[in-house]
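Entry for the shared binder. Reason: the reviewer on the internal report wants the predicted structure included alongside the sequence.
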Amino acid sequence: MNGLVLGVDVGTTSAKCLAVDEAGRPVGWGQHAYALSHPHPGWAEQDPEELWQGMLAAIRACLHELGGRASGVRALALSTQADTLIPCDAHGRALRPALSWMDSRAQAEHAALLAEAGRDFWYGHTRFPLSPVSSACKIRWLAAHEPDLHPARWCAVPDYLAARLCGRWVTDTPSASWSPLFSPFRRQWEQQVMALVRVEASQVAPVVEAGESIGPLLPMAATELGLPKETVLVAGAFDQVAAAHGAGARAGEVGVLSCGTAWVLYAVATRAPADPEQGIPVCCHVRAGEWGMVLPFAGGSAYDWWGSRFPAGDESLSGGPLPVFIPHLYGGLAPDWREESRGALLGLEMSHTRGDAEQAVRLGITCEARRNLAAATRLTPLPALRMVGGAARDPGWAQLVSDLLDRPISVPAFPEAACYGAARLAAGKQSADWSMGESRRHQPDPARARALEQDYRRYLAAYRALLEVYQVW
């Protein structure tokens, strides 16, 4: 597609917009933050209107940076947070705040659904291990606790925004496949699962493939955004798929470690993967015949929590063994989905400094990356990783990942992989040779890797021992 394209990432805490020219070069940028509310323990909600307004503000900021070149924008595609639930009426208007993907209120509903169907049913039909944060559990929770809601549509972020942008209620295949109501192998909504949670076919959005044109923007939306009226919305992907596409993930060669609110290890497979342990979620990648193995775990949110609760102070290191930090502040995610697990800081001594604890937080998150790499490589080789997101900007942390995971780590020249991946989808075949480039490469240090093995063994021992404690917590 000739002209400029926009890759727009509507994430958990902010919306971002990247403009890319015909040669794949970033030429404009905008970002706008919004709130995530926690009205009760385990709850995480957002106002869908704030997502819309945040997206508008990010796009406008990008267009302002483009100046006169803004008239050359021809298409945009979205990268969005996945499996955030927005109950809507028949006109696409939200009936209540969105239940974020990290909302874990539906504990009882999770237990009930597993009792009714069992783990084999859920993973067998959807390749998605059911957990309390799954939208299927939240649908059950709303039916029990807000029985007067009666949504005509169970929307997710991409189809909610598509309907407002161009008047067509559709979602992209990768985003649909991250819902527990969809089969990534048949590439369609799974009727048996939908029947179990009492969702009608009319309540979920029709699905189109990533990169397919959805349609031109509505005149009102184009005017509100300041975009040419002929601008086309192209089907995108949820954020982890978009980031992997942007960073150049390749089956059997390069995986992507995305370091955002959650850290996510993403690996592309050309054969439909099936984890015998049922812990690895599988989604549709951007191309038919390829799948993504998506392993989310606690990352940026745990590090941000540490920084906000314990402001910078003595950053010196004591030189002794570090404490062990388990980053499960909202339960354990991949690879074993132990929702009863909690955050912990163990092994403190009088000699420990704030700097020791800070290093322990980083090491704990990196140990989770190692656990997930071990799970993923049971199904597909991952000889190298590309690291994107906040932690990738820190050379020390990227080297720690390389040493502990014993993999070469490359860091792209431009950090916003999800936006770049969405822009590639908007551009279509023109983007086949686009690349984010490379700013740094880290090789494992054998001596450091050997020293870290003891830290990793201590981490595993602490994690397993605490699971026993949480059984009676």
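Summary line for the report: The longest helix spans residues 446-470.
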